[in-house]
Amino acid sequence: MPSNSECFKKVMMAVDFSECSLSMLNHLDELEKAGTEEIVFIRVINLTKFTGAVAGFDIDAWVEIQEEEAMKKLEELVKKVEKFGLKAKFVHPIPVGDPVGEIVEAAKKEGASSIMLASRGKSRIKEILLGSVSEGVIRKADRPVLLLKSGKGCYSGKMFKKILYAHDLSEHSADVVHCVKEAALAGGRDVVILHVEEKDERGDKRLLKEAEEELKKAGINVKVLLREGIPHKVILRTAEEEGATMIAMASRGLGFIEGMILGSTTDVVTRRSKVPVLVHRHPRHPESNQN
Questions:
Q1: 0.85 exceeded by the pTM?
Q2: CB 3.0 to 4.6 Å from 100: which of 136, 150, 174, 287, for a disulfide?
Q3: Diameter over CA atoms, the chain
Q4: Which secondary-structure segment (H or E) carries 172?
Q5: Are residues 192 and 271 in the same domain?
Q6: Are residues 42 and 71 in the same domain?
Q7: What is the per-residue burial (b if ≥16 Cβ within 10 Å, else e) of 71-83?
Q8: Are residues 77 and 15 in the same domain?
Q9: pLDDT, one tens digit for every residue, the chain (291 residues)
């Protein structure tokens, strides 16, 4: 697992060649300023859509065609990134199987500092029932995941201009400060730290103060907000009110099945946020160990 102080040094970009996944390249300047040195592309040929044998359909031949097409497109993406001035490569051979597992495992093998992907904007009901690749990666990854939202169109704004840092007083949330600092220094140097106080809360606000002090020492403008209510609702409302261009938060999460049925703060925020969301799962507590 890469150091917490190098959240963006080596970024794995998961692409499906859709408009929104390719729009991640529009953020190369921000990533470079945040310390990115290398981009690793991954394209997974998704076989989970084939639940059984399909009469008259040659899956092996289809996979070969997909591999050939992916190779050409990935080579073009590598050239674009290298032309920009960063190192680039793609995962080869082209992974075939379940996108979530392949992306998470490839990130480990490549030593990626973080994973970046774009939401394809499925309907809310469909995502609640079935989940999505983005949600699956966020639950399973043991490193930061930066999710760009599609919504009515691909996100085109500056991600790091103003960051809403949701802090729940846990050590997990405290770990996120390193990524927030790197992003803020590469952007607008503007961070809003939000803690949503819940009924009968007994948390120690020491970690909140430490995060504030660390960011201020780096020359970042910090605003601390303490609000009450349902966490995901307050986070989303505050992000809109404060004009945040990204939400950063930790994910301790529920188990995979519980998360799909009941949801968690992270699940709901990533589904409904209109701006990119950076989710950091503590490496000592990967979701895969909770299933």
A1: yes
A2: 136
A3: 65
A4: helix 171-175
A5: yes
A6: yes
A7: eebbeebbeebee
A8: yes
A9: 454 468 999 999 999 999 989 999 999 999 999 999 999 999 999 987 766 556 667 888 989 999 999 999 999 999 999 999 999 999 999 999 999 999 999 999 999 999 999 986 554 544 444 458 888 999 899 999 999 976 667 888 899 999 999 999 988 899 999 999 999 999 999 999 999 987 766 667 899 999 999 999 999 999 999 999 999 999 999 999 999 999 999 986 444 444 444 458 888 899 899 999 999 976 554 444 433
Same domain? 27 vs 132: yes
CA distance 48 to 70: 18
87: helix, strand or coil = strand
Question: What's the CA gap between 40 and 36, in Å, rounded?
Answer: 11
**Total count of residues recorded for the chain:** 291
Count the domains in the chain: 2
What CA–CA distance (Å, rounded) separates 32 from 36? 5
Residue 2 placed within a domain: no
Confidence (pLDDT) at 264: 83
Residue 246 tokens, joined: 């990204």
What residue ranges in 125-237 does DSSP mark as E strands? 145-148, 163-166, 190-197, 221-228
Exposed (0-12), middle (13-18) or buried (19+): which is 120, by Cβ within 10 Å?
middle
Q: What is the CATH number of the domain that holds 168?
A: 3.40.50.620
Residue carrying the six token digits 């082209």? 94
Do 169 and 143 share a domain, yes or no?
A: no
- Chain centroid, CA 72 distance in Å: 26
Domain span holding position 205 = 163-289
Beta strands in 158-258 (DSSP E): 163-166, 190-197, 221-228, 246-250
* 129 and 224 together in one domain: no
